[in-house]
Amino acid sequence: MIELNTKKSEAFMERARKVAPGGVHSPVRGFRGVGGTPRFIASAKGAQLTDVDGNSYIDYCMSWGPLLFGHQDPEIAEVVREALTRGWSYGAAEPLSLELAEFMTHEIACLEKVRFVNSGTEAVMSALRVARAATGRPKILKFEGCYHGHVDSMLVKAGSGLAEMASPDSAGVSASVAAETIVVPLNDPQALEAAFELHGKEIAAIIVEPIPANNGLLLQNADFLPSLFRVAKKYGSLVIFDEVITGFRVALGGMAERTGLTPDLVTYGKIIGGGFPVGAYGGRAELMDQVAPAGPVYQAGTLSANPIAMSAGLAMLKKIKRENPYPVLESRTRELAASLEKALPGVQIQTDASLFWPIFAPLSSKKKVRTPADFPEGQKEQYSKLFHFLLSKGIYLPPSGYEVSFLSTAHDTASIQALVRGFEEFHQAHPLQKAP
After folding, report:
1. Which of 84, 128, 304, 410 is the most exposed place for a label (fewest CB within 10 A)?
2. For the whole model, what pTM was predicted?
3. Does the annotation count 270 as an active-site position?
4. What CATH number corresponds to the domain at position 142?
């Protein structure tokens, strides 16, 4: 491996640990999952990151997904520059959020009304509150392996049996809050039905990532989502799609469009701000009219519908509709996956749309990883080796073996070939198994 000069990043990290927890402002940035010194990024353009030491990397993290057109897309950047001349925070009603809300509700069949917030976590928190208010029920059901932000009631793990509520998965989350959540395994319709038989009259909603992609890319059987809707309807519970990753990343209408299923509520994240800090939740009008000032569910935010984020988001979504990048991105991602599997025997690549995730399990196993219980032994350690090897070659993957990578329209043929070549060179240096 090439030893890159990282002196400035190391110095920044030493300073940062003195003033921020772990030296970072979101845990995975601390490289805890892979070890080593986090890179402090100075700038980004297209598919490239440049750190404070002047090292350049081809970025396959893409700010965790929202940069469908890469960093600093010129069209979106021009809109943002123009918006800045008008002001960057009003704390008042303005026409940009109206235009973006009209665009989204027109394009997304399940979205009759929408409320903008500041993050995916805030969107989930608010959607859960609406679900409880609308049903008069206290509990939420989620799936093990799905992540829904750092809302207290979502930072939970399964109890020892279906009769038990979830227990806290983070310090500072009380047992009483965790008890509001029921956790069941992914890909297990029997467990879902059993949980509803025990607690169905108390469950306000099921919340799910329609493509679980925050703890690996956990591909579900085709009947997973339809069976979830059948159970929810049977017991009078709502269904919430957490599309913070998949919304506008897999299709203009997200997974609701792809599956033809109609969730009651949907949550969105950064992509609707073109990468700027923004989130949203929405759904059926009668549910959203529960939200203040129309109804009794209180939710507010001084920076909600920030005019810069609204401008960027509107430009982003209009460009998505005009260019329809999804077929090309999906095709390129499948081709990339096939090339990576050939380059590095002992790895299989799970993909969906423009998301991909390397798993350190031989192709001969032919077993899809659908739940955390399916994670192959040594995934974290092997991925860490691959991550640092590629980093030394100027390629930046997500700094965790359980996070997915993203392709953007900014990744050209040379970028993709560099990643494949990196996998080939890793195989030569650290062969996992003989090439077929």
Report:
1. 84
2. 0.94
3. yes
4. 3.40.640.10
Structural domain boundaries enclosing 187: 74-323
Residue 331: strand, helix, or coil: helix
235 and 165 in a common domain: yes
Helices (H), 216-325: 224-235, 254-259, 285-288, 307-323
Euclidean distance between CA atoms 309 and 19, whole angstroms = 28
From the candidates 242, 264, 281, 326, give the one annotated as an active-site residue: 242
* Tokens (6 digits) for 239: 């269904």
Distance CA 346, CA 419 (A): 16
Catalytic residue among 270, 319, 385, 393: 270
Rounded Cα distance between 181 and 139, Å, is: 6
Catalytic residue among 60, 147, 268, 383: 147
Q: Are 125 and 151 in contact (CB under 8 A)?
A: yes
Is the separation of the CB atoms in 397 and 61 below 8 Å? yes
Give every residue of the chain whose pLDDT is below 70, as ranges: 1-2, 158-167, 362-366, 433-436
Q: Do 85 and 60 share a structural domain?
A: no
Tally of domains in the chain: 2
pLDDT at 163: 41
Q: How many CB atoms lie within 10 A of CB 257?
A: 16
What local confidence, expressed as pLDDT, does residue 1 receive? Answer: 57
Give the pair of three-digit tokens for residue 358.
């390397």
Residue 242 annotated to the active site: yes
My answer on whether 409 and 422 are in the same domain is yes
